[in-house]
UniProtKB/TrEMBL annotation:
A Pfam match: DUF4296
Residue ranges of domain DUF4296 in the record: 32-117
Organism annotation: Hymenobacter cavernae
InterPro entries, sorted: DUF4296 (IPR025381)
Protein name stated in the entry: DUF4296 domain-containing protein
Length: 123
């Protein structure tokens, strides 16, 4: 009888664990209405990383650097005719689809590497 109770407790504990793990699995995200195409997303990310590097190189005080980056980011979103909301929703969507995000960041890294090489050649 004791053996049966401990077996039932163990079965219950395992079932509860599996159930809780299933509850925490991320659901397949709904495709955002304003999903940025992968090419546009990569181009925007390239320019955001360049803006971030410009701000870091400026050696401004943290508050001024944050304000400068926020302005550069707003300008980029305006230039790309998108919103920060559409960008972040697209980023989350691609992040869940990790192969898509890997492809996007592969393009970003390749482009930034080429730019860095060209900049090094000029010096």
């Amino acid at each position: 009888m004791k053996n049966l109770r401990s077996h039932l407790r163990l079965t219950f504990a395992l079932s509860l664990t599996v159930l809780l793990m299933q509850c925490q699995r991320p659901e397949e995200p709904v495709r955002p209405a304003l999903l940025l195409p992968k090419e546009k997303m990569a181009s925007l990310l390239i320019n955001l990383h360049i803006a971030e590097a410009q701000v870091e190189a400026s050696r401004l005080a943290p508050d001024s650097a944050r304000a400068m980056f926020n302005q550069l980011r707003r300008d980029l979103f305006w230039r790309y005719e998108t919103t920060d909301s559409a960008f972040y929703q697209s980023y989350r969507y691609y992040a869940v689809h990790d192969k898509d995000l890997d492809k996007i960041y592969g393009d970003v890294i390749d482009s930034l590497s080429v730019r860095e090489t060209k900049l090094g050649e000029k010096k």
